[in-house]
Amino acid sequence: MESAIPMHLETQRTRHMRVPDDYQPPYPSFVARYKPAVSRVVMAYFGVQYRGATPAAATEALAEIAGLFAGEGGPSHWDRAHYVDQAGHANIVSVAYWDDIARFDAWFAPAREAWTGKSRDGIGTFIEVLRPTVARHETLFSSLGRPEGVAVIADGMSGEVQEHAYWGGMRDRIPLSQTDPMSPGGNPELIPDGARLRVKANDNLCLIRSGQDWSDTEASERKLYLDDVEPVLREGMDFLRDDGLAIGCYANRYMEVLSADGKTSEKSYGQSWWKSLAALERWAESHPTHVKIFGAAMKYLSTLGPSAKLRLYHEVTVAAADEQFFEYLNCHPKTGMLAAVETVAA
Amino acid sequence: MESAIPMHLETQRTRHMRVPDDYQPPYPSFVARYKPAVSRVVMAYFGVQYRGATPAAATEALAEIAGLFAGEGGPSHWDRAHYVDQAGHANIVSVAYWDDIARFDAWFAPAREAWTGKSRDGIGTFIEVLRPTVARHETLFSSLGRPEGVAVIADGMSGEVQEHAYWGGMRDRIPLSQTDPMSPGGNPELIPDGARLRVKANDNLCLIRSGQDWSDTEASERKLYLDDVEPVLREGMDFLRDDGLAIGCYANRYMEVLSADGKTSEKSYGQSWWKSLAALERWAESHPTHVKIFGAAMKYLSTLGPSAKLRLYHEVTVAAADEQFFEYLNCHPKTGMLAAVETVAA
């Protein structure tokens, strides 16, 4: 049993963990481990948005960003996913990860200009970037052998960690929680720059990417997941998308991961922006929509036991004000962090 | 909005609350308020145990303890409840409350001798007492106007309190949590004294009495409670009774409150002894049996909204080693805290 907090980020605590030192989780979970030399990671979401049939410009833009990713200074890993949002627009989001901020910065300046610097026919584009210090970030995996998201660029996975399977584990896994309540500061502001709309969000904004992979499940387990768990998960994701703002969820996307050939895969993830880690905690712990998800997942996992083939993971970041970048071009006003601010119709 | 911690018990914190200062609970709840002069309360459980038809000795014992309660130095309030335990024995427990330790001590010495000092034909008797400082104790009520248990002897009820409707609220309402993790110390020990068996339990032992009152519910609400909530609650109570030890629950009784005429009423409570507050927290937050109870209660309350007539309350104490007293005479070895120690057959 090891701590989710890597040894070199352990500090003298001024805030306590939520569980006693002798706490033993009831089942194993694992976290991504970066090389100690990695001080920051970057997670960058590049979105294409359109309504109706796929415009040629969308296909071109997706090829273009893939080309940029493959070029000098590009990410160590990226993936792509799809969803249809509350306004009926399709969104295809390419998510890229770096573990070197200098390499990212050099790569990003021209890539940004290429992505949101010019209008394209019939599509909107957007960029959402966090570049947190590793002390502001945590991951959790239900099993080994198939890292996802930011964990792909890590050095490897931990052994079994202590801080999970209780409410508050997410916070306790973030190294900064040893000394900082990570309270939100300020309110999101719109910064128009011609047609480009930037959002300056609040200090200690929180991002979660929470994924499901049912590709290894067979017959009865697959049926149980798709019939009993997935619909409840979808209902919760829809609630956050449509009514999240009142409880501090700025935006939520329930994404279908696309495979390399652009087809849908048997993987999904929810990705959401929150005013604070505390707001995410409150929803997860006590909102009826997540209590239902938690109940369905508990029932599923206790029915299957250790033989379950479903893979679950998440990554959570609490970003300082200067670790964030949001820019939207020709997107509808409920896109991503635009939903957190008042915009005038373009 | 006020703190559940009374002003005169606020201290310089070395441990943080689980929620931010601006946390707003989604619905109202209330706590009992004692006069600031009250430094300790006493909760004393006097049990009668027998198998099969009620022996004359049981009826006599119940009349006797009621007489003692009514005498000089007796409790400010008491109530009585009934349950059939895992060994098939009936248990009738008279629970009495004091807010003056000197009065209790003077009253208790002869009462104890009367209750567990002599064997009675065909029945066992037991005494379980906590006498915590008020800083080691909290209550919670879903509505005003009908205090139960220890709250009956309080000065009154608070206004709406902040520390509830999140996991960790129970701990945050206990004043001592401001500075102390309330970790358990030591292991329960059996102290035989002839036929009398005493248990010296561990430091920071935890007691919860968690009650339900459906006497005000009508037609459809009553049906919903009795059909959808109560069976799930009973299942959880049975789990704690039969299999609780492995998760730190020494003993659990799911009691039917008896009215003044000795008949059953439309009130019940679960009463359980725990190794620690942390063990109780873990069960409540993540054990499938309580997750089901929580889910059923959430569904019930969200169906009915503010019109719900069901009343819920609890009282929780974390007692220091010298604030506890357990004594059993002619009871079976799974009775109360005897379940926590090895006993030889009498």
UniProtKB/TrEMBL annotation, chains A, B:
The keyword Iron applies. Pfam families: Dehydratase_hem (PF13816). It comes from the Bacteria. InterPro entries: OXD. One of its GO terms (molecular function) is lyase activity. Its cofactor is heme b. Keywords: Heme, Iron, Lyase, Metal-binding. Belongs to the heme-containing dehydratase family. This is Phenylacetaldoxime dehydratase family protein. It comes from Bradyrhizobium rifense.
